[in-house]
Amino acid sequence: MSHGPATPGAGPLIGRALVPGAAEGAVLYSTEPLSFWGGYDAETGEIIDRRHPLSGRNGAGRVMAIPATRGSSTTTAVLLEAIRRGTAPAALLTRGPDPFLALAAIVAGQLYDRAPPVIALAPEDFEALQRLSHVRLEPTGTVQAR
To answer: Which pLDDT value is given to residue 28?
Structure first.
């Protein structure tokens, strides 16, 4: 995985598109992994894990940046349901590949003909996201500050 400058405004971040797609939105960033099972309300998009730093925030339509998922493959089922309901994040950015997020997006593409992009970034590029409030993702895995 190649990476770009970690300084906002210095150029795009280049990640690996696990599930390619274009998206744009406000960044919801955390340094803590998230379990969607018991941590994300598929009906509303609210992050309901009261121990998570993003607790009470809503991920629906946002570009969610979490380093990885936590827990088991049930994360895939909850995210898939959120995609079906239209309450999922617009895109998911991770610090390295996350198979559970990618699987949910791939299955959603097959079942519902819509899938949020899932982009894996190098650790230093993932950390650069905390300074960005709004990003645009390209199908190639490029993440550009807006």
So the answer is: 98
- pTM beyond 0.70, yes or no: yes
Average pLDDT estimate for 13-39: 97
- What is the secondary structure of 25-49 as a DSSP string? EEEEE-SS-B-STTTB-TTT-BB--
35: annotated active-site residue: no
Choice among 2, 55, 72, 73 that is catalytic: 72
User: Within 13 Å of residue 35, how many CA atoms lie on the same side as its CB?
Assistant: 11
The DSSP letter of residue 58 is: B
Helix H or strand E segment including 64: strand 63-65
Q: Rounded CA gap, 35 and 98, in Å?
A: 12
Q: Which runs of consecutive H residues, i.e. helices, occur in 1-146? A: 74-85, 99-112, 123-128
Average pLDDT over residues 35-46: 97
